[in-house]
């Protein structure tokens, strides 16, 4: 017998699992972990502390934890081609904050992408970059190409000589001009950081740009978007910054890192070594196909002249269909999970009623969907967005369609159902 409060929570977890198992999860910042990753996350490591570095802990009982952390760090540097890595940050924002602290000083001049243009809030005055007191200067943005204006960016770097140039974004359908910035940064003495949170899994599969090879001094990321690991963060960087970064992670931003998530990260890194290229390739194929199919169904998908996307993401302008907030809620009522999103021309202060929605296909890809399935997804979505059909009938069709995709792909053991709740 369990308490009513516990049963309430357990029932809500069951309901959530059942809901997502009969839905189309298309939040661009989410994914689903493999069975072996879940095994690690659910282990005794979730109970333990391991402050400090392997071999130099402030607690006893860490000898196996040390070996796991060293292996995870080795896997990260191997997969991404970095000189070294820190796998301890417990979130992407904390990874960013630690990198900011190591690469620049309070009040320094930096360059980053504005939030309406797709930049992450942690790169802005509202979050981590603001807490660092940075003098934040926004990249010039080309709305037609949905990307940073490279020529104007280079001029801006020469003029400002920023201490730090921050690439990466929450909306990143196309690669950022890292190589072009590196050429100028070598002249101005600027450092380059790339926040790969959204595209880390595509980078792991060699299907997006390679920021480290292109000249980034550090690449930060969360580990649970296109990279299908447990929630957490990672910093991949040059050895010359290792002392400062490790100090910024511990004791700077983290006391005990989450050991069960770190072990899960290690498992996912190993799986991505084996399956990452196939997964990333299919993810991008699916995104391009969905963009074209939605456009053909009458949706205003941005980026048509550039093939819609080169990542997992799509942006759809639904301002003439009721707006982002209204459409996102209608889609949710039909078991299609996506988020409202401001577009480059929107007011940054009007995030509640933006013009667009943002879509990601990485989780649909993880459960086995291919290009032909994107045609079905587009048809289901357009019935809500374009035709304004009642959500009840669409929801029934979504459930029938999604029930066919209940295994995790691109991993070593896909026997467990994707959205199965493991009850005790």
UniProtKB/TrEMBL annotation:
EC number(s) recorded for this UniProt protein: 2.1.2.-
Cofactor dependence: pyridoxal 5'-phosphate
Cellular compartment(s): Cytoplasm
Recorded metabolic or biological pathway in which this protein acts: Amino-acid biosynthesis; glycine biosynthesis; glycine from L-serine: step 1/1
Species of origin: Methanonatronarchaeum thermophilum
Residue numbers binding (6S)-5,6,7,8-tetrahydrofolate: 119-121
Coiled coil: none
Alphabetized CDD domains for the sequence: SHMT (cd00378)
Self-association and partners: Homodimer.
Family to which the UniProt record says this protein belongs: Belongs to the SHMT family.
GO terms assigned for molecular function: glycine hydroxymethyltransferase activity; methyltransferase activity; pyridoxal phosphate binding
Protein name (record): Serine hydroxymethyltransferase
Principal EC category: transferase
